[in-house]
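Interim report, section 4.2 (structural modelling).
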Amino acid sequence: MHKSLGGRAALDGFTLDVPAGETVALIGPSGCGKTTALKLVNRLLGPDRGTVRVLGRDVSGEDPIALRRRLGYVIQEGGLFPHWDVAGNVETVPRLLGWPAEKRRRRAEELLEMVGLPPGEFASRRPRELSGGQRQRVGVARALAADPPIVLMDEPFGALDPVARRVLQREFLDWKRRLAKTVLLVTHDLREAFRLADRVAVMNRGRVRQVGTREDLQRTPADGFVREFVAEESS
Amino acid sequence: MTGVGGFFWERRGEITVLALQHLALVGVSTALAVAIGLPLGILLTRRPRLARPVLGVAGVVQTIPSLALFGFLIPLPLIGGIGARTAIVALIVYALLPILRNTHAGITSVDPAIVEAAVGLGMTPGERLRSVELPLALPVVLAGVRIAAVVSIGLATIAAAIGAGGLGVLIYRGIAIVDNRLILAGAVPAALLALLVDGTLGLVERRWSAWRSA
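Predicted structure of the assembly:
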């Protein structure tokens, strides 16, 4: 896949396969194209050349609005709507899909319970009344609200302090086990990538250098870049 | 001072009628300026290349001295002539810039992460505008309307020069016969009107901001 942004190649011969039910982390130095690659999946960006398939179907033939409602999306610092309360934020996609109010509310409560924010206490709070970690939990609940089979996460825990980050990473693994989603995750933190993902895709200059587990990347790095990247980040 | 007070009291009927006329001029022109400026401001956020020239032109128009603008409009067909209609056109022209600029600024200053979330979750452009961008931009838009309304109250006194009525009638008459009390009978109610409108719209603005982030 190829994609240029502002005259510069952001993706250049990018290929990645994310098998159903797996969590794959995209990692690499700033500007390597990892966020660009993620945004091609829900058509926030379109490729110059190449195809993106979601559940086997080429996304260029799909309505981008309908596609996005079928994909969960978590962004850094949550990107919550500040004028809606927590429940309103979580209900965003169900509301867009026209679910009845009762069903939406039940779903929001169920998800808030799951992400550790008891709805009785948190449902009617505004985002500004939450800590960074709580906001990020709401962001995760919002992404899962319409039960999408695939979840895209762009630096989901990047803005958190180390303690909150560890807690959310642990909980992520728990959610992952319970929900069996396919997750594509962008991070700049190799420890986080190894901790959360089944496989890690190391990127540089718009291209995936190697996809593999921690052992694969450490024992048999595909090239000098991967070896250095894994060694530096793990040290 | 009792002299001026008594003078006002004697003319309370006329002052009330002219003040209502004044409010009507301002109300109608501000409402029409919102009806034009709000959609146009939104359009400018969707067509960024148009924003600079359009805001630039609106800014230049605003520098035309108001009395001259009233004069320019009189000979024009349809919108021109003597009377309230011409005055309302001129007031719309002046009210447009703050409404246009604030609508544009309000929407473009919404946090890009929030806009990205709205798009990424699958909102259509219309849903994003209605449920995210406009509610978040509203305090800034309202501030623009408030500026427009307050400025219009001052400008509308000049509209009396082209026969549009309003509190300017008393001011012009006072100038013509060199009677300060008559000038004040127009100016003081106009100033009070401006304070009242400013205060009311300011209150609406604060209420909204408070509700939004409560």
